[in-house]
Design brief:
The chain has about 120 residues and is an alpha+beta fold. The chain has 3 helices and 5 strands; from the N terminus they run ββαββαβα.
């Protein structure tokens, strides 16, 4: 696994730290999530998506980590949109005190994921 790009976004005082990783094996997501839990100790949620295609055992998986809405699914959509087929996208949220609601949370995670993917594809 190697980190390709990282971006910080902010929505209503909540900070979203999005990281894009290239994977050699889809099981590396556990290591990536452990790393995020250490880097962002104050984060309440570490939502993720893994897309590892094609392969003998194709994998598309998401984790919402207890967050409202469907942020994992939205993050997976970013990987699909940009044809990132051997990648993981993890977004860690540090709550800023203002509730966003399920739709707002999903949009914020998706937008953070989109930001890091765009940065990687155009700047990285």
């Amino acid at each position: 696994m190697r980190e390709l790009a990282a971006v910080k976004t902010e929505v209503k005082r909540s900070r979203f730290y999005a990281h894009l990783y290239a994977l050699d094996d889809p099981d590396e997501i556990a290591e990536v999530l452990d790393l995020h839990r250490k880097m962002y100790r104050k984060a309440a949620h570490h939502c993720s998506a893994v897309r590892f295609l094609p392969g003998r055992d194709p994998v598309e998986a998401t984790k919402n980590d207890g967050e409202v809405g469907h942020p994992g699914k939205a993050i997976l959509g970013v990987l699909e949109k940009h044809a990132l087929d051997h990648h993981a996208l993890v977004v860690s949220r540090l709550f800023g005190g203002i509730k966003l609601g399920p739709g707002g949370v999903t949009r914020a995670f998706r937008d953070a994921g989109e930001s890091v993917a765009e940065y990687y594809l155009h700047e990285g």
